[in-house]
Amino acid sequence: MNGNGYDKRSWKKKRRRQTEGFEAVAMYWARAKKDGKFGLSYLDNQVFSWSVSDIFDRDLLRKKVKRIPDTFTSFESYLDSFTWPLIEEVHADVFSSLDGYSEANFIEVTQVGNLDASKPILGFRVAEPVKDEKSRETYVPVENDIIVLSSHKPRHVSDLTQNKSSFVLGSVIKTGEEDGFPPDWCVVHLSSAILVEADCHTKIPKRPLFLVFLINMKTYNRIWRCLHLGQNCSNLFELQNKKSSGPVTKAWEFKPKPAEAESSQCSQPSQCFDGRLIEWLGLEKFGLNDSQLNAVSDCVSLMDSNSSSIKLLWGPPGTGQEDTCLCTYEYCCVRDCGSDRQSNCEVFRWHRLPE
């Protein structure tokens, strides 16, 4: 067989494979969208509503975010008090990602097609990630990712402000290979409808197209659902009577001790948390300040008492709550010799707050 005949067969096979990939995505979406489980979350819509200038406005939510009080009037008021601080944290995360846009990971789109006539939902096939460690063209889409759809590789955030169509966000709502969904494809719900020109047969875009990663919303959406389960009366009753909601109930019923009582227990953070204990536990690697170490000390002290009191860790985004919790976790594991994930879970079960 001559070279031309072989090339023609190879081209037809490649084109058929390209067509079959999008057809499989379209068939999957036709079945899946009936379930209604792929709708955007409240937080996704909130992110989509922000312009580039909104994201870079540090005072955007200042009037909406109130200080979380020391006491609460009800279970619902306790959960509601975290709503705007959570949105503020999402805003800070998106800001941080856009601020470092020139260093963002991205991937090129090799095929694209519309999946929904009434919503800006598209199917994208992406290229293989580049194996060069120095390359940023390594992004692999994951469900709940927020991405920027761009016609350019990310160089500077000003690329997104050239015109109204320059800044288009998307939420990755489907990836994976189960249920007949083809690999290397993803379904993305865009923040606005845009015209993406592609070959009607091969679905290859006529102009360069890239997905640029910003943040993943999975954890934020989980927290949001937990905060708003109580909006339904039956859910609220169920939550308040669940054994697992005991710590939450203790939190909103928390009554702070008088200042003099607190000061009598410990006047200086350094006195509360002995430096030798820090060294023995290896906590210096966390780089906590005195205030954070004092918080760890307070939590640890509860484990050795029969008190049902609770300590609240509070602080604006970026003040080290996660590091403080990890430090406490480390203490539990070292103290009780937790060597694996299962035993560590048991450690926390032993040290749960008294019912």
TrEMBL record:
Pfam families: DUF6469
Highest taxon of source: Eukaryota
Stretches of the chain forming a coiled coil according to its record: none
InterPro entries from the UniProt entry: DNA2/NAM7-like, DUF6469, P-loop_NTPase
Domain DUF6469: start-end pairs: 133-232
Protein name, entry field: DUF6469 domain-containing protein
